[in-house]
Amino acid sequence: MSQFIPITDQIIRKIKTYRDHTGLSPAKLIERYTEIPKALTEKTVDNWLSGQAKSGQKAHVAFMLSAYEEIARDHISTALYVDELRAHKRRTGINARHLLKQAKDIPEGLTAREIDRWIKPRPTAARRDHLDFVLDLWRRQPDRTDDLIPVTPEMVAEIKAHRRRTGVSFYAIIYNGTEPPEGLHPATLYQVVGGTQRSIRKKHYEYMIAAYENYRRPDIRHSAETIAPLRAEQERTGLSISRLVRLQNKTPEGFSATRMQRFFNGYQKTVPKEHYNYLLSCYAAQPEKNK
Predict the structure, then answer these.
(1) How many whole angstroms from its chain centre is CA 265?
(2) Host H or E run for residue 80
(3) Which ranges of the chain does DSSP label H, i.e. alpha helix?
(4) Cβ 123 vs Cβ 174: under 8 Å
(5) pLDDT tens figures, 130-188
(6) Of 28-42, 126-140, 171-185, 243-257, which range is least confident?
(7) What pLDDT, on a 0 to 100 scale, did the predictor assign at position 183?
(8) Rounded CA gap, 184 and 203, in Å?
(9) Largest CA distance in the chain
């Protein structure tokens, strides 16, 4: 038979102190254990803390206090250090992956993904030795030497215009066969155009604009060889280019049925390769006209 004890103010204070110190909610703490007392749930503990339950099973209370005490020995809440971690990342311009890349004697189990979780708004539990190692490593890094420049509406408009003109994603333009500057990621550009990042490293911005300005889409030239597949598909399906395009729900950015028809007729000498291939793929998806 289960023995119940009062949920005193002292028990509530202990659990809340452990929760805040470790960064683990009761639910997250319980998730860490495969064997827990029967009928113990997150809701059980929430009812204690909110005052809705004035008593609880003795085994439940003992488990929660013991589990929190065990975690607290070698874990600490990232909420206590998140501001410093973010400040070091901004100051140095070094992200977690590059920070660990240059490190030696990394503690077992420490990864860049774990460090990225520490920097998120929601607190979590970090191993003390992991956190101490990262803080010491980041504190010893020099200040970034490149200048941050504010993101202006004109810059955002320029970036968007280049992306529309080329139809090339931020990922493709950054990893375009050349080595991008350290720290430049597609997420950076999405945050800039989305308004959630108000500054950007000057060399990142200049690299990206130069990459877009120098980008040239591969074109298909009008010739008997390039027109033959289109003519064969028209005969097979009985569909003109304009009629085929009207059947599509969505076309690539910059695609024009009129332009493709002019290319077919020889009045336009080139079209983007992706538009040519798109048209052929649309034809390939159509049945033969007599079926």
Answers:
(1) 45
(2) none
(3) 9-22, 26-31, 42-50, 58-74, 82-92, 96-101, 112-119, 128-139, 153-166, 170-174, 186-194, 202-214, 224-237, 241-246, 257-265, 273-284
(4) no
(5) 999 999 999 998 887 667 888 899 999 999 988 887 778 888 888 776 778 877 888 88
(6) 171-185
(7) 79
(8) 9
(9) 90
Please state, in angstroms and rounded to a whole number, the distance separating the CA atoms of residues 4 and 62. 11
The answer to whether 65 and 12 have CB atoms below 8 angstroms apart is no
Q: Which two tokens stand for residue 19?
A: 């929760």
**263 in helix, strand or coil?**
helix
Q: Which residues contact 240 (CB under 8 A, 6 or more apart)?
A: 234, 261
Give residue-wise pLDDT tens across range 57-107.
888 998 999 888 888 888 888 888 898 998 888 888 788 888 898 888 898
100, 110 Cβ separation under 8 angstroms: yes
Distance CA 237, CA 242 (A): 13
- Per the structure block, which two tokens stand in for 255? 């695609």
What tens digit of pLDDT does each residue of 110-121 get?
Answer: 999 899 989 887
Q: CB–CB of 135/115 below 8 Å?
A: no
Please state, in angstroms and rounded to a whole number, the distance separating the CA atoms of residues 271 and 247.
Answer: 21
